[in-house]
Amino acid sequence: MSQLAVDGFRAERGAILEVAKGLSEEEWGQPSACAGWTVRDVMGHMACTLHGVIDPAFLPNTDRDTEQSMEPAVAERRTWPIEAVLEEYETCSEQAANVFASVQDAPLADTMLSMGELGTHPMSILPSTFLFDGYTHLRHDILTPTGSVDRPQPPRDEMRLRPTVEWMLAGLPWMCEDALAGIVDRPLVLVLDGPGGGTWTIAPGGDSGRVVLTEGAGDRAAATVHSSDHDFVIWGTRRAPWRDLTKTEGDDAYAARVLDAIKII
C-alpha cells in the first residue's frame, strides 16, 4: 500500500504540473472552489506544504485550526511571481516524493509521527497524506465542473484513490473526534465503490474515546452508507453535501447524525 501511495503521489504530481504549466495568466487568477482562494492560491498552498516536507520551518501549525493556519503562507505567495510559485511546487514535490519513498522501510516506516489535530500516524502514510491533498485540490478546487480551469480530469485509478481513501479513514477518528463524541453509539458501515473502495465499519471508541474503524461489515450495524471512492473525497471534506452523493440503508436518522459530523481536512 505504501509504495502504491508513492506511485500515486508521483502520478498526481505529474497531472498537477501538466495543468499548471499550461495555465494562462488569466487562469492563474481565476477563483478556485476553495472559498477566497484563486487557482494560484491553491497552487501556493500545495507548494508550501510540500516545502514543509523538506524543511519543517515551512509546515503550517496543525495543532489547532489547521485550515486557518494555511492562510499566512498563501497570502505571502500572492506577492510572488507565478513562475516562483510553480518552481517551488515542482522542486519541492519532487524532493518530497523522494522523502516519501525513503520512509517506506523499517524502522522509519513504523515510526509514529504526531500531526497535531490530524492525528498520530506511522511515517509510511505520508505519501497518502499529500496525495489526498493534491487529488482533492486538483480534481475539485481547480478543474471544472466545480473549479474554473477547463481541462480533462486525470484518471481515477487505484494508485491515486486507494491511498487517498486510506489517509481519510486513518485521519477521520482524530479530525472528527469532538464532532463524533456522543454520536457514534452503534456501528455504521461505509461501503465505497471504485478502485480505491472497500467496506469499513465505524464503531464506538475504546479508551481513547475516538471512534474505531475496521475493515469489513461489522455485526449489528445500525445503518449502511453507500458511495463511490471519489465522491467520498468530495463529501468527506464537505466540498459537497453528503446527501447528494450517498445512499443510506437502515436507521437513516442515525446515519445522518454521523455523516453530518464528518469533516476531513
- What amount of the residues lies in strands? 5-15%
Given helix and strand content, the structural type is alpha+beta
Shape: globular
Distance between the termini: 21 Å
**What's the main sheet like?**
5 strands, mixed
The CATH H-level homologous superfamily of the largest domain:
dinb family like domain
CATH topology of the largest domain: Four Helix Bundle (Hemerythrin (Met), subunit A)
Number of strands: 7
- Note poorly predicted spans: none
CATH architecture of the largest domain: Up-down Bundle
| Cα Rg | 18 Å
Strand line-up in the sheet with most strands:
5-4-3-6-7
**The number of domains:** 2
Please give the structural blueprint:
Blueprint: H1 2-21, H2 25-28, H3 39-54, H4 66-69, H5 71-77, H6 82-102, E1 112-114, E2 120-122, H7 126-142, H8 158-175, H9 177-180, E3 188-193, E4 198-203, E5 212-215, E6 223-228, H10 229-236, E7 247-250, H11 252-260
Parallel strand pairs: 3-6
Antiparallel strand pairs: 1-2, 3-4, 4-5, 6-7
Helix pairs in contact: 1-6, 1-7, 1-8, 3-5, 3-6, 3-7, 7-8, 8-10
